[in-house]
Design brief:
Blueprint (H helix, E strand, L loop, with lengths): L3 H9 L3 H11 L4 H9 L3 H14 L8 H20 L3 H4 L16 H8 L9 H44 L30 H7 L24 E2 L4 E2 L4 E5 L18 E9 L5 E5 L4 E5 L4 E2 L1 E6 L8 E5 L1 E8 L9 E9 L2 E8 L1
Parallel strand pairs: 1-12
Antiparallel strand pairs: 2-3, 3-4, 4-10, 5-9, 6-7, 6-11, 8-10, 11-12
Length: 356
């Protein structure tokens, strides 16, 4: 493409995924190496993304691949090199850190508009973490409201019980006056006999009021809150820089990276660094568990990095990783949700929830 200025503008409009692939090609890595190392994908998947890049750069669809490859080597990659100075940090948050030339007529307003169209594949991890904190806050408020309501009902029951007990007690009887021994008692002066008050007579003469509200027992045992479930496709922090999510779609049980003869189903976890820097991922494949909302537990077949047939503690180095866990058994038609627990990933426990 002869118009370098136009090509530079089109490069600034690429999303993060496609400019990343161009930069990996700049450091002379093959399609197979790029796909396997950075995306856990095949070389064919990288070539398909390059086809999209050529379309975005307005190369004719009918142009032969050999000519496109020549344009890539002679024009596109040298221009990417000039706009990044070969520095990986300039590719991050593209095109925020790109080197702009005076003749590109790239205004600040134009860059802000391009920022809104950045890579849809790479998530805004800070927003996802904030969303997860909001979910937890709502759960805590709900538990606090329920606890307050239970305490109020218990107090009302106690007060009603005590009021009923006070109403059931009879008034203290006035003792009869005993006349002096020297007084002559006649029929005219004889006082009416006051019957003695005995417990049996009280029981038959005064009705007993029974409280109609049964008080709730007060206990010091706290209510155990429901564990915080992480919805699918929501990023949860492992630490300040590394995040994990469970994908909504199941892994194909017949795929090359998760092929077993036991049937069942497989779930995929994606682990990423928000700064695109390497980290160590530590987990034990035996610590994954799955059950549905009606209590059916699914046996673990295998789990591991980019495959589901690994066992034993795993320590993997990288910055974008895929972990697959496969479980046996069949889901019931009465099941409405699936709960997958990872007991320890870098020392933290995660409970994921997926609607079925």
């Amino acid at each position: 493409m002869a118009d370098e200025k136009k090509l530079a503008k089109l490069l600034l409009e690429l999303d993060q995924l496609h400019i990343d692939i161009l930069f990996y090609k700049l450091i002379e890595e093959s399609d197979e190496d790029i796909g396997d190392k950075y995306y856990s994908k095949s070389g064919g998947w990288i070539r398909a993304r390059m086809g999209e890049t050529y379309d975005s750069l307005e190369y004719p669809t009918e142009m032969h691949s050999s000519k496109k490859n020549k344009e890539l080597a002679d024009v596109i990659l040298p221009l990417v090199d000039r706009m990044t100075a070969g520095d990986p940090s300039r590719v991050k948050d593209w095109p925020k850190n790109a080197i702009l030339f005076d003749d590109l007529d790239q205004t600040e307003e134009g860059v802000e508009e391009n920022d809104e169209d950045l890579d849809p594949v790479r998530p805004n991890l800070e927003n996802e973490a904030e969303k997860l904190d909001q979910i937890r806050s709502r759960n805590l408020l709900a538990f606090a409201a329920i606890g307050s309501l239970l305490l109020l009902m218990a107090l009302i029951g106690v007060f009603a019980y005590e009021a009923g007990q006070r109403q059931a007690l009879p008034a203290s009887p006035t003792p009869a006056t005993i006349p002096p021994a020297t007084e002559v008692v006649t029929e005219a002066t004889q006082q009416p006999v006051i019957p003695s008050l005995t417990p049996s007579s009280l029981a038959t003469s005064v009705p007993t009021l029974t409280p109609t509200i049964t008080p709730l027992p007060l206990t010091d045992t706290p209510v155990s809150p429901t564990p915080d479930f992480i919805p699918v496709d929501v990023w949860a922090p492992i630490n300040s820089d590394v995040y994990i999510r469970m994908e909504n779609n199941f892994e194909n049980p017949l795929s090359g990276r998760c092929f077993t003869n036991e049937g069942g189903f497989a779930v995929v976890f994606e682990v990423k660094s928000s700064t695109h820097t390497a980290f160590l991922l530590r987990f034990d494949p035996n610590d994954f568990h799955a059950e549905d909302d009606i209590g059916t537990q699914f046996p673990l077949i295998g789990a591991g990095y980019n495959r589901c047939d690994n066992f034993g503690p795993q320590v993997i180095q990288g910055w974008d990783m895929i972990v697959i866990a496969k479980f046996g058994g069949q889901m019931s038609q009465d099941s409405h949700s699936l709960i997958v627990t990872a007991e320890s990933i870098n020392g933290k426990r995660f409970v994921f929830h997926k609607d079925l």
